[in-house]
Amino acid sequence: MDQNVNQHGSENTPESPHSGLNPLWVAAVLFVCVLAVAVGFIVQQQKVASQLSARNEELTTSLTQTKGQVQTLSSELNTMQAQQAAREKAAEEARRTAELRRERIRHQAGAKKVVNRDDPRWKEVQAELAAHQKAIASTQDDLAKTRSDLQGSLDSTRTELNGSIAKTHAELVELEKKGERNYYEFDMTKANRFQRVGPIEVSLRKTNAKHQFCDLHVIVNDRELAKRHINVYEPVIFYTEQAGQPLQLVVNSISKNRMHGYVSAPKYEGNRMSAANASQAPVTSTNSAGPAAGQAASVDLSHPAAGANGR
Q: What pLDDT shows up at residue 292?
C-alpha cells in the first residue's frame, strides 16, 4: 500500500520548468538575434556606401572645376605666347632689314672705293641705322619686361584661383580676417533686373540645381557681359581699369531659381597701393533694406547678407 502511495505521489509531482522548454523556440530566438545583427550590419554598410558616394561626387566636381581653370589659364598663356612671338618676329624683321641696308651700303662704298664722309646722304644713313638699332634694343627690353609682367600676372591669378575661394560663410569670414580684399556677399533670385554687388551689377538668368550651374549677366565698367554655365565654386575673373588686381565672383550655392555667393574686390586701387596700411575697411555686402543702388552697405560677416537692391 505504501508502494502505491509513493507511485501516485511521483505521478502527481509537477515536471521541472526546463523539461518543458521547446528547442524550436530556442532556435527561433537565436535566428531572430542573428537576423537583427545582420540587418544592423547591412544598414551600417549602406550608410558608409552613401557617404563614400557623396564624397566621390564632391571630388569629381572639384576635379572638373580644376580642369576648367587649367584650360582657361592655358588658353590665356597661349594667347600671350602668340603675341610675344609676333613681337619677336617684328623685331627680327627690323634687324634683318637694317642688316640688308648696311650690307648694301658697304657694297656701294666698295664700288666707289672712296666715301665722302661729309655727304649728307651718308650721315642720313648712319642716323637711320642708329635709330633702327635703338628701336631694336628698346623692343627687346619691352619684350623682356612684358614677359616678366605676364608671368607675374599669371602666377598671381593662379594663386587667387587656388587659395582664395570660400565655399561657406565661415570660410568667407576667415578670408575677410586676412584684410587683403573686400568681400560682398549676395543672395539673389532669378530676374531680368540687375542687383548691385560691390563694384559690379549682377542678374541671375538661369539655374540648374541638379547639375549645379547657372547663367549670369554682369555689368562691369558700364559694359554688360553674359557669363554662361558657371559651375558652383568656379571663380569668374574680371579686370577693371581702376584696380590693378582682378575682381572675383564665386557662386557657392545653387538651388531652383536662386543662388548665393560673393564678390571679391581689391581693397585699394592701383594708384592707392601705397596707402595699404591706412584704415581697415569692413566687409561689405548689399542688403535689400540698405542704401540705394550703386552704393554697398557695410555689414558684419557674422550674419549672412541678404540680396542686393534691384537696378
A: 33
Confidence of residue 273 (pLDDT cuts 50, 70, 90): very low
What's the CA gap between 71 and 189, in Å, rounded? 30
Largest alpha-carbon pair distance within the chain?
171
Would you call 95 exposed, middle or buried from its count of C-beta atoms within 10 A (0-12, 13-18, 19+)?
A: middle
* Coil, strand or helix at 108: helix
- With beta carbons less than 8 A apart as the criterion, state whether 132 and 98 touch: yes
- How far are the Cα atoms of 86, 87, 127, 144 from residue 139, in angstroms, in the given order? 12, 8, 18, 9
Take residue 58 and report the three cell numbers written for it: 564632391
- Residue 280, SS3? coil
Query: How high does pLDDT run on average in the chain?
Result: 76
Amino acid at 83: Q
Distances (CA, A) of 147 to 84, 134, 141, 215: 8, 20, 10, 34
- CA-to-CA distance for 195 and 249, rounded, in angstroms? 14
Residue 310 has pLDDT above 50, yes or no: no
Q: Using alpha carbons only, how large is the chain's radius of gyration in Å? A: 39
Domain-wise residue ranges, the chain: 69-163, 169-269
- Collect all residues with Cβ–Cβ distance below 8 Å to 167 and sequence separation of at least 6: 233, 252
The answer for residues whose C-beta is within 8 angstroms of residue 154's C-beta and 6 or more apart is 73, 76, 77, 80
Asked if pLDDT for residue 3 goes beyond 70, the answer is no
pLDDT digits (tens, 9 = 90+) for 156-205: 655 554 556 778 888 888 888 887 888 999 999 999 999 999 889 999 99
- How are beta strands 258-266 and 181-189 bridged, if at all? antiparallel
H or E segment at 308?
none
pLDDT tier, 243 (very low <50, low <70, confident <90, very high otherwise): low
Picking from 262, 266, 276, the residue whose alpha carbon sits closest to that of residue 245 is 266
For domain 169-269, which architecture applies? Sandwich (2.60)
Task: Copy the grid coordinates of residue 148.
Answer: 616678366
